[in-house]
């Protein structure tokens, strides 16, 4: 247990480092976007390549992709029901800010640090399905609800997905795994060196981007959204761990994914739909703190 707490404490320490460095002026607030590009397009992609390489995959493991997608769809429904009496504006906000999981920038480093390659593969497969929600699915539904026109547009979703380097890497490496193929060893070693930086870069990025805003009158909305999100997440995590017929490493990975924070892109989509960006940022940042605690407790219990 002590080793897990120390390891998790190091993650928190890196987040605090990023937060402090931003506040003393070492990083500008806009540097978050640069760090985000490095993590998403370089270190995360390299980590995916390294952890998928040489791994064989069973067809049944594709269920993890389906679970990632269905969990997002379920949470969209929860968000719509949660604010059904508050009007379209609030419904739209809840749909965006309660669905989708921050896998690549948050859950993945925990999987790398505690579960190893098999756990990373499981988290990656879940994220394939989750990406359809995070990268435009929830935004399209929220826009449809807010405008009231009843038109769901798939084009923005597929446009975003086609430009998602991690998702394309997931798909490519999954195909290789099913075909029992592997990339050349020099490429794997090169990716391994870069991928080893993913945990540090992702946690540092979270610290640099950590931001609480909004006003005290919105505390009720923050509590309502986060308590609902994590109540559902905990129930899914418990059900996955105790009842699914998957290997232990996959069930442990699912626990981490269901306890992951709200998708980091949610505030950007909220601003795009002219929603309350400050409230969205507060919900997102607080979800990171809650997830750190819940995932650390879960790892202490599971490992």
UniProtKB/TrEMBL annotation:
GO terms for biological process: transmembrane transport. Its main location: membrane. One of its GO terms (cellular component) is plasma membrane. It is a multi-pass membrane protein. The chain crosses the membrane at residues 6-22, 34-54, 60-83, 165-184, 190-210, 222-244, 250-270, 282-302. InterPro entries: Mem_transp_PIN-like, Na+/solute_symporter_sf. Gene3D superfamilies: 1.20.1530.20. It holds the Pfam family Mem_trans. PANTHER family: AUXIN EFFLUX CARRIER FAMILY PROTEIN, TRANSPORTER AUXIN EFFLUX CARRIER EC FAMILY. Belongs to the auxin efflux carrier (TC 2.A.69) family. This is AEC family transporter. It comes from Brotaphodocola catenula. The lineage of its organism: Bacteria, Bacillati, Bacillota, Clostridia, Lachnospirales.
């Amino acid at each position: 247990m002590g080793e897990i707490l120390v390891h998790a404490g190091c993650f928190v320490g890196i987040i605090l480092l990023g937060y402090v460095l931003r506040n003393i002026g070492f990083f500008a607030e806009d540097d978050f976007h640069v760090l985000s590009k490095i993590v998403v397009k370089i270190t995360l992609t390299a980590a995916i390549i390294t952890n998928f390489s040489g791994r064989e995959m069973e067809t049944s493991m594709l269920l993890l992709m389906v679970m990632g997608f269905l969990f997002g769809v379920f949470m969209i429904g929860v968000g719509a029901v949660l604010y059904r009496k508050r009007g379209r504006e609030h419904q739209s906000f809840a749909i965006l800010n309660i669905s989708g999981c921050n896998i690549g920038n948050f859950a993945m480093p925990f999987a790398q640090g505690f579960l190893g390659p098999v756990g990373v593969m499981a988290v990656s497969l879940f994220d394939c399905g989750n990406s359809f929600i995070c990268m435009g699915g929830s935004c399209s539904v929220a826009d449809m609800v807010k405008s009231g026109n009843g038109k769901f547009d798939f084009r923005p979703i597929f446009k975003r997905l086609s430009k998602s380097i991690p998702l394309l890497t997931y798909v490519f490496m999954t195909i290789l795994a099913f075909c029992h193929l592997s990339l050349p060893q020099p490429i794997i070693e090169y990716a391994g060196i870069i991928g080893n930086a993913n945990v540090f870069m992702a946690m540092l990025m979270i610290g640099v981007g950590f931001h609480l805003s909004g006003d005290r009158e919105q505390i009720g909305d923050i509590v309502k959204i986060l308590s609902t999100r994590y109540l559902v997440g905990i129930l899914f995590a418990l059900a996955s761990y105790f009842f699914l017929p998957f290997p232990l490493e996959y069930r442990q990975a699912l626990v981490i994914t269901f306890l992951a924070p709200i998708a980091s892109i949610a505030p950007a989509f909220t601003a795009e739909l002219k929603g309350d960006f400050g409230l969205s940022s507060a919900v997102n940042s607080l979800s990171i703190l809650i997830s750190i605690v819940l995932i650390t407790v879960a790892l202490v219990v599971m490992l």
